[in-house]
Specification:
There is one protein chain. The chain is α/β, with parallel strands linked by helices. Helices cover 28% and strands 19% of the residues. Strands 1-2-3-5-4-6 form a six-stranded mixed β-sheet, sandwiched between helices. α2 packs antiparallel against α4. The longest helix has 20 residues. The radius of gyration is 27 Å and the shape is elongated.
């Protein structure tokens, strides 16, 4: 750690950054764009090429005759990429950051900027307001709005987000199961709670539960402790913290959740 550097500044250097250069395109979004390009400009799908991939080099890419680049390039070098294609007569239709789409001083008057109100969530989680730049169908236009493309891309983005959310399953645990997540919520909403050793035993997975079990492990607790957790949950709801995050579903944990040990009842590792 450098002299004068805080611990937070030191740790921040090692955290992966969500940059626009790592915005790999969700397939649903790319398909919506490719369909639009095909319909409007008559570019056949088999003639579309994608030179921007991990480890790829667009300058050394083999561009077949009659091809058109329809792809999502690294935004930080977008101006240079457009120059490269314009100087070589290579047709392109490229994703671009909407708010800085007109910032390429050497290319701004040589391409059409198709501005769409699209908020695309890319594979790395970055959410970028996205538009497009192209030299296809050159009719002198420098900038245009395109509600048709915006609608198609936004719909594709919503479908992609729906698929991602549907893969997340939140198990709805009964009060007899204490998890770190529950105590995080209690701390967040100002609720103090304690469970002592005589009222709990570690449990990794409940009967009939799919997958790897309780994420991070949990505690199977006595009825007395369960009543405390129930009361805490009701108080969280009263304070405005009820419900699950949007897009997630709650599933029952199965038969293993039915055992409610009484306060003071001997508890063994067989419950784990």
């Amino acid at each position: 750690m450098a002299r004068g550097e805080t611990y937070e500044e030191f740790v921040e250097k090692f955290r992966p950054k969500k940059t626009t250069d790592d915005c790999y395109t969700p397939p649903e979004v790319y398909e919506a764009v490719a369909d639009y390009v095909s319909r409007r400009f008559g570019v056949r799908r088999e003639d579309m090429v994608r030179p921007f991939y991990p480890g790829g080099d667009y300058e050394r890419f083999d561009y077949p005759d009659g091809c058109a680049v329809v792809d999502n390039p690294p935004f930080s070098i977008l101006a240079g990429i457009m120059e490269f294609y314009l100087d070589r007569g290579i047709p392109f239709f490229l994703f671009a950051p909407a708010l800085t789409a007109l910032s390429g001083a050497k290319t701004v008057m040589r391409v059409n900027h198709i501005i769409t109100d699209c908020q695309v969530t890319y594979h790395n989680g970055a959410k970028v307001r996205t538009s497009f730049v192209t030299n296809l169908g050159d009719d002198g236009c420098v900038i245009e709005s395109c509600p048709e493309l915006a609608e198609a891309v936004n719909a594709a983005n919503e479908r992609n987000l729906g698929k991602r959310a549907s893969k997340k399953t939140r198990w709805g645990y009964p009060a007899n199961v204490a998890t770190v997540a529950r105590f995080l919520r209690m701390s967040k909403y100002g609720i103090e709670a304690r469970i002592t050793r005589e009222h709990c035993v570690r449990v990794a997975k409940l009967d009939m539960q799919e997958g790897s079990g309780i994420f991070g492990g949990g505690l199977l607790v006595s009825d007395e402790a369960a009543e405390m957790l129930d009361a805490a949950h009701r108080e969280i709801i009263r304070r405005g913290g009820g419900g699950l995050p949007e897009g997630q579903t709650r599933r029952p944990v199965g038969e293993g959740a039915r055992h409610r040990p009484l306060a003071g009842e001997a508890m063994t590792d067989d419950a784990a």
